[in-house]
């Protein structure tokens, strides 16, 4: 299993656990808020590099 697949599987597992323990709206806020906060914490140059890499991979 690739590294990205392991990360995705872990994210799904965490999401399911959060849905069991928390109301659905709180789980959705956490699942969407953590990646958004991480992206906003990047420097502008790091954001540009991340967008460039993502576009390259989409064009394969």
Which structural class is indicated by helix and strand composition?
Answer: mainly alpha
- How many E-type strands? 0
pLDDT under 50 segments (min length 5)?
none
Strand content is under 5%
Based on CA inertia axes, which overall geometry fits?
flat
Mean pLDDT: 84
Q: What is the string of helix and strand elements?
A: HHH
Number of distinct helices: 3
- The CA-CA distance between the termini, in Å, is 20 Å
The profile of the biggest β sheet is: none
Helix content: over 70%
Rg, alpha carbons: 14 Å
In short, what is this structure?
The protein is mainly α and 60 residues long. The protein has helices at residues 3-21, 24-40, 44-58.
Would you kindly provide a written description of the structure presented here, covering whatever features stand out?
By secondary structure, the protein is mostly helical. It has helices spanning 3-21, 24-40, 44-58. It is flat and about 35 Å long. Helix content is 85%, strand content 0%. The longest helix has 19 residues, at 3-21. The chain starts with a helix and ends with a helix.
């Amino acid at each position: 299993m690739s590294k990205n697949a392991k990360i995705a599987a872990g994210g799904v597992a965490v999401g399911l656990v959060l849905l069991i323990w928390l109301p659905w709206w709180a789980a959705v806020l956490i699942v969407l808020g953590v990646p958004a906060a991480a992206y906003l914490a990047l420097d502008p140059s790091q954001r540009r590099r991340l967008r460039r890499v993502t576009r390259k991979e989409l064009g394969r």
